[in-house]
Amino acid sequence: MKERFSWLPDVGASIDEEPNVRSTPFGDNYELREPIGINTIKQKWTLTFTLSEIEATQARNFLKARNGSESFIWKTPESEDRLFICKKWRVSRDIPNYVLTAEFEEVFDND
Fold it and tell me: Quick check: 87 and 30 in contact, CB under 8 A?
């Protein structure tokens, strides 16, 4: 059973989506394009969380425990449960809170 990242991001989360497409150029500026695979569009979210010191520590420990490779469930701002990994995050202190910024990258696991 996958663990759930349950902390709520601040307003202003952004999403990057880029279809996975193979492109084959031909003469006369003609180009053949086709999607690669069955899951052709992955979501990548840039998120900011303003948290108390305890919450920031818990969220950071959650991400550290997955070591950038183990996927987890996260409910997107669009209210969809999806699987993500987080390879990069940062915590800064903004008295009296802590600010965690992270990139959540969608993955398609088969378990």
Answer: no
Q: What is the pLDDT of residues 20-49, one digit of tens each?
A: 999 999 988 899 999 898 888 999 999 999
Contact 101, 48 (CB under 8 A): yes
Q: Distances from the Cα of 74 to the Cαs of 27, 45, 86, 103, in angstroms?
A: 45, 11, 11, 12
Number of structural domains in the chain = 1
In a domain, 17, yes or no: no
| Closest residue by Cα to residue 2 from 50, 96, 57, 73 | 73
For CA atoms 32, 36, 39, 45, give the dihedral sign: negative
Domain with 60, as residue range(s), is 42-106
